[in-house]
Design brief:
The chain has 81 residues and is mainly alpha-helical. The protein has one domain. The protein is built from 4 helices and no strands. The longest helix is centred in the middle third of the chain and has 25 residues. It is elongated.
Length: 81
């Protein structure tokens, strides 16, 4: 029983970790955002992801090309491109 609960918790954590801006662009009724609402949401989400990724680069003490590369990849992963 403990193994089943542990496996279920692991699946839940892995699924939540894979959330991207594109997957989050669904409103509460299950419809996908479109037009100006989608553009606004994606712009804000990408900006927030970039800020978070830049902070991670600083935490990992990356500089120069390494920081740029990490930030770019991290942001693209968060946006879902």
């Amino acid at each position: 029983m403990k193994k089943i609960l542990l496996a279920a918790a692991l699946v839940f954590v892995c699924t939540a970790a894979n959330a991207t801006c594109k997957t989050d662009a669904i409103d509460k009724n299950g419809k996908t955002l479109a037009g100006a609402a989608l553009k606004s949401f994606m712009t804000k989400c990408e900006k927030d992801a970039n800020t978070k990724c830049m902070a991670e680069s600083k935490t990992q003490k990356l500089n120069g090309a390494a920081a740029t590369s990490h930030t770019k990849k991290c942001t693209m992963d968060a946006v879902g491109a």
